[in-house]
Write a structure and sequence with these properties.
37% helix, alpha/beta, Amidase signature (AS) enzymes, 11-stranded mixed β-sheet, 2 domains
Length: 482
């Protein structure tokens, strides 16, 4: 039961083949069994969840109208406020925060019938590709406990892949949904920009409201693309402040047939070198799709990766630095004074972001909007583009200062933060992007790829994810957690 897909569990509840209490109990027992090794679930609300499960069973018995997630137990990334459950954002200053209301996205899940029974771990302020903090410690990857499950939705991914929850809500500004899904062999969807409310997300601090910062999004992680679609249908809505006048309805997928697909493939990039095993599996997936009748062509983009990264880094870094100590800005300002304009090292990009003037931001944002229009033209010729999710499979825990960390890619040391490069193209253009698992590395680690599509055509990404799943195989249970 613990590894059944969410849509299967929902069907069992509605058909009276399993009770809500029975399913919740199975997940709570699984948390008790495996969480000490993984440390993904960091807060539980078992008693209230049990009461809600009992009530949900009564509704089934009485034949009442049931929501699309009726009785489904699930956990929530600890970047979202959940009513009555300590919600920290990984920040020790917020460890006493017990919200009196749910984040808007969480409330939509609850209104659809989901039963929230716990929170999952994040890095401090959701600002790392590893999930650890001073409150709850380090989350381990179920595929290899010495490795990270990714971040910032790392607790979400680790809980899903080890059978502790059937569905999760994450958030993504630098790959924070997609990279953990890639590291843990899952499906994760970064939606089109601002179609799911982030009101109640942390950061910003509790009590302050995030209505959109131009980059970050909220979205689901799951063990099947069908589960992503069910969650997306529930989550997509105007923010409460706009709901009296605005409504959202995503278009259907462009096609459900592989033979009608036009696919661009972007398996590697000199500017953002990728582990050769990732590139190989993406190329193999492209060949599988081609053999199944799809048009598959190597991508020819109307801009370079360096141009994308220049815009992305200048939009991202000021946001990530917001709220940093005065000393941090002073150090970065000094570093920026002697910076070579051609220096595109990660530390240099952070330093530039620390002193970016608003007048310069306006220019960079105009460049972003120009790229968005070029992507729109690109997707007139193609339905989706396939590309790496990150430059590497899951790597070993490394808690050294960020700019001292290195990753070995094809035998060469790379700066740690380059692992986020492939997150940028979809983020700056507000495009939907789905991570789908496509195989294992030579040392048995999951490898995924992104399926990125046109703005607001999220369901096209999900439909292609289904087709890729059918060709490359379903979610695989980590060997040590079957």
């Amino acid at each position: 039961m613990i590894y059944e897909n969410a849509h299967s569990l929902i069907s069992k509840i509605k058909n009276k083949e399993a009770s809500c209490v029975e399913i919740l109990d199975a997940f709570l027992k699984r948390v008790e069994e495996v969480n000490p090794k993984i440390n993904a679930v960091v807060a539980l609300d078992a008693e209230r969840a049990l009461e809600r499960a009992k009530k949900a069973d009564e509704q089934v018995f009485k034949g009442e109208k049931l929501g699309p997630l009726h009785g489904l137990p699930m956990t929530i990334k600890d970047a979202f406020e959940v009513e009555g459950i300590v919600s920290t954002g990984g920040n020790p200053q917020w460890q006493e925060n017990i919200p009196k209301r749910n984040a808007e996205a969480v409330q939509r899940l609850v209104d659809a019938g989901a039963i929230i029974f716990g929170k999952t771990n994040v890095p401090y302020l959701s600002s790392d590709l590893q999930s650890y903090n001073k409150i709850y410690g380090t989350t381990n990857n179920p595929w290899d406990l010495e490795r990270t499950p990714g971040g910032s939705s790392g607790g979400s991914a680790a809980a899903l892949s080890s059978g502790m929850t059937p569905l999760e809500l994450g958030s993504d500004i630098g790959g924070s949904i997609r990279v953990p899904a890639h590291f843990c062999g899952l499906f994760g969807h970064k939606p089109s920009y601002n179609i799911i409310s982030e009101v109640g997300h942390m950061p910003p601090p509790p009590g302050q409201i995030l209505t959109g910062n131009g980059l970050s999004v909220a979205g689901p992680l799951a063990r099947s693309p069908e589960d992503l679609e069910i969650a997306l249908d529930v989550l997509v809505a105007a923010q409460e402040q706009d709901s009296h006048a605005w409504s959202l309805k995503l278009p259907k997928a462009r096609t459900t047939k592989t033979s009608e697909l036009r696919i661009a493939i972007w398996p590697d990039e000199p500017y953002a070198e990728v582990d050769k095993e990732i590139t190989k599996l993406i190329k193999e997936t492209g060949e599988n799709l081609k053999e199944s009748g799809a048009l598959v062509e190597t991508a020819k983009l109307p801009f370079t990766f360096a141009e994308i990264d220049k815009v992305y880094s200048q939009l991202l870094n000021p946001l990530m630095l917001a709220g940093s100590p005065k000393e941090t800005f002073e150090m970065l300002e000094k570093l920026n004074e002697g910076l070579n304009p051609e220096d595109m090292s990660e530390l240099a990009k952070v330093a530039r972001g620390s002193v970016l003037k608003y007048s310069d931001w306006v220019v960079v944002n105009a460049m972003r909007q120009n790229m968005r229009q070029k992507w729109r033209e690109f997707f007139g010729n193609y339905d989706v583009i396939l590309c790496p999710t990150s430059i590497t499979p899951a790597f070993k825990h490394n808690h050294e200062p960020v700019h001292e960390r290195k990753l070995s890619i094809n035998g060469n040391d790379q700066e740690y933060l380059r692992a986020t490069l492939w997150a940028g193209p979809a983020v700056i253009a507000g495009l939907p992007s789905t991570n789908v698992p496509i195989g294992l590395s030579s040392n048995g680690l999951p490898i995924g790829m992104q399926i990125t599509g046109p703005y607001l055509e999220d369901k096209t990404c999900l439909e292609v994810a289904k087709l890729v799943r059918d060709l490359r195989g379903e979610f695989k249970i980590p060997p040590n957690f079957k």
